[in-house]
Amino acid sequence: MPRSKIAGIGMYVPENIFTNNDLLKYMDTSDEWIQERTGIKERRYAHRTEETTATMGIEAAKIAIERAGITAQDVDFIVFATICPDYYFPGCGVLVQRELKMKEIAALDVRNQCSGFVYALSVADQFIRTGTYKNILVIGSEKHSFGLDFSTRGRNVSVIFGDGAGAVILQPTEETDRGILSTHLHSDGESAEILAMYNPGTHANHWGTKNYADFDDAEISDMFMSHAMIDKAQNYPFMDGPSVFKKAVVKFPEVILEALHANGYEPSDLNMLIPHQANLRIAQFVQQKLKLRDDQVYNNIQYYGNTTAASVPIALCEAWQNGKIKEGDLVCLAAFGSGFTWASALLKW
Predict the structure, then answer these.
(1) Is the dihedral of CA 117, 123, 126, 127 positive or negative?
(2) 276 is known as an active-site residue
(3) How far apart are CA 304 and CA 17, in angstroms?
(4) Residue 220 pLDDT
(5) What domains can be seen in the chain, in order of their start residue?
(6) Catalytic site residue from 135, 199, 299, 306
(7) pLDDT given at position 211
(8) For 305, left (φ over 0), alpha (ψ -120 to 50), or beta?
(9) Which of 4, 40, 150, 312 is deepest in the core (most CB within 10 A)?
(10) Annotated catalytic residue 211
(11) pLDDT reading at 230 higher than 90
(12) Which is nearest to 272 in space by CA: 318, 233, 304?
């Protein structure tokens, strides 16, 4: 059975840089406040009308395809991870297939939030290992800026997120010292609502969610979208930050160790850990917990914010481009996000 290898990788981030000080125009915050809590200095925002989640994914895909030495016509499967699709339906995968003029291939959209790319990579890995496909395009892309509450009311969430995309081409390899060694996926829906975007949705408050004031108001809960939802800012993401932090700092190191131990390694063997760029404080806690050196962990949330499903491939691509990942290196990808879902992948570059 062949392994999967990353044959090409690409990333795309919008040109528009938005610093913490730029946010002062819209909300009561400060550069010091944001950096202290998240480590973020700036983020990228996509053009409001000229860039979408799909178009950013396409730009990253073009680079990955070229670096893999293939053409768009060679791709036989697309796996697209995002929480910010261009449309409620259809998914972004078919938009990529159409825009890149690919053959009538399979396209799968993955909705696992911050863990989306690692989940998507795991799905693609299984198809490579079984010989079903030979050139799989895996994309993680997000356009968060279009749906954030740029006000003091929404600052706890809005200061965190940014836009961007990353992509890889996965191919089979017979090399025993290269490729994806294993992937590990988990979920626990017990606290699903503490990090969620409720509206628009079909729940009609079935789950009795009380995270928003007056969420069970009949005018709100009985409708897919209403003026009351907009007036009460209930069409924006909700996050109980401290609760998410407490869960993340437990599950992040657990799933990293799971991947390492499954393949006979220890944290000291890692050449590079690419954590999902959720919060620099979480990444620093995980680094300390696993006793990793600074040169064993790559963080770029300072400059891009949290790009959820795009954050792992963006960081992986940037680390590789900067010469921090070399052939033969042991690399771990890990993510934790809404759901909760968490995942890891261990690979030899």
Answers:
(1) negative
(2) yes
(3) 9
(4) 58
(5) 3-173 (3.40.47.10), 179-190+240-348 (3.40.47.10)
(6) 306
(7) 55
(8) left
(9) 312
(10) no
(11) no
(12) 318
Token pair in block for residue 56: 């950013």
Amino acid at 16: N
Tens of pLDDT, residues 255-297: 999 999 999 999 999 999 999 999 999 999 999 999 999 999 9
Q: Which listed residue (84, 114, 317, 332) is catalytic?
A: 114
Q: Is 227 a catalytic residue?
A: no
Catalytic one of 112, 276, 317, 332: 276
Question: Could you write out the three-class secondary structure of 254-298?
Answer: HHHHHHHHHCCCCHHHCCEEEECCCCHHHHHHHHHHCCCCHHHEC
Q: Which one-letter amino acid corresponds to residue 312?
A: V
pLDDT category, 209, cuts 50, 70, 90? low
Helix axes 92-99, 53-67, angle to 10 degrees: 60
- Cβ–Cβ under 8 Å, residues 162 and 145: yes
**192 touches 206 (CB < 8 A):** no
